[in-house]
Design a protein that fits this description.
The radius of gyration is 19 Å and the shape is globular. The chain is built from eleven helices and five strands. Strand 4, helix 7 and strand 5 form a beta-alpha-beta unit. A five-stranded parallel sheet has the order 2-3-1-4-5, sandwiched between helices. The chain has 274 residues and is an alpha/beta fold. Helix 1 packs across helix 9 and helix 4 packs across helix 7. Helix content is 54%, strand content 7%.
Length: 274
């Protein structure tokens, strides 16, 4: 089993301590299939510090863009999705007391920037992605400028809001569950972009990997966090909550409508809308 890794770079800034700053605001970054939701939920339960997050894309789409999966969205629909997630993060992180953020505000920029490089529907079929790439040539410059501006805004907010970051690295292959709207290339690029952004922002951070129990213990140790619930109990409850959220979504008829196989004509119409 992978060992916990804490890898501060030479000259890395000292991490703040909860004892000295009881209003500590920590963000946990990591791309798809890094265990971010379970880790942040378990850490919140174990320490008693509230967890903040934005709803997942799948949860938001049933209201924002009914009948479509993330792999079928055009660029403007992805902008709409990203702005809604950003809005949720700003609202949920407006508290002045301590919190643990699942992701952090500049995740929305990272995923859009990765799409500008890999393709806006990286998990879709090859022909779909090819048509999208061709159709996007006339407007790609506009969306890149939007992406750059979003990056400036979200990184600036992160510098003002968070006291420190913990990054969960890509340590294993993405789950092939058919729901994640990305490719392995997209996931690895997103991971690189997250680290690059942390270095640019000069926010103190550490990279922490390994099994979830090891992660929780190490993060608690790094920041001197309190423990109000035993870690094994916190992890068990976190796993139950994450599973319950997914089960609730799968029971939503709108989710199943979006997941149904589209006709070839419908797929082509989606592909021709960048």
């Amino acid at each position: 089993m992978t060992q916990t890794v804490v890898a501060p770079k030479p000259g890395a800034r000292t991490l703040p301590d909860f004892t000295d700053n009881p209003n500590l605001k920590i963000a946990i970054s990591g791309t798809y299939s890094t265990g971010k939701s379970t880790t942040t939920e378990a850490l919140s339960i174990a320490t008693g510090i509230p967890r903040t997050h934005a709803k997942t894309s799948r949860q938001l789409l049933v209201d924002l863009v009914p009948g479509k999966t993330v792999m079928e969205l055009n660029a403007m629909e992805l902008v709409k999705l990203g702005l809604r997630r950003f809005e949720e993060r700003v609202h949920n992180e407006s508290r002045t007391t301590a919190f643990i953020s699942d992701g952090g505000v500049f995740h929305e920029w990272v995923y859009f920037e990765a799409r500008m490089r890999v393709g806006i529907n990286p998990g879709a079929k090859w022909w779909f992605r090819t048509v999208k790439k061709i159709m996007g040539l006339p407007v790609k410059h506009f969306y890149q400028r939007y992406t750059d501006t979003l990056g400036d805004i979200t990184r600036d907010r992160a510098k003002r809001i968070y006291d420190a970051y913990v990054h969960l690295p890509v340590e294993f292959d993405m789950e092939a569950d058919g729901h994640r709207p990305v490719s392995e290339e997209f996931r690895r690029l997103s991971d690189d972009l997250l680290i690059e952004a942390l270095d640019r922002m000069d926010i103190p951070y550490r990279v922490v990997g390994g099994p979830i129990p090891d992660r929780i213990e190490k993060i608690i140790e790094l920041f001197g966090l309190p423990v109000v619930v035993p870690i094994p109990d916190a992890i068990a409850e976190a796993e139950r909550r994450v599973k319950a959220d997914l089960d609730d979504l799968k029971e939503d008829a709108r989710f199943h409508e979006a997941q149904r196989k589209k006709s070839l004509i419908r797929q082509i119409s989606y592909a021709f809308r960048y």
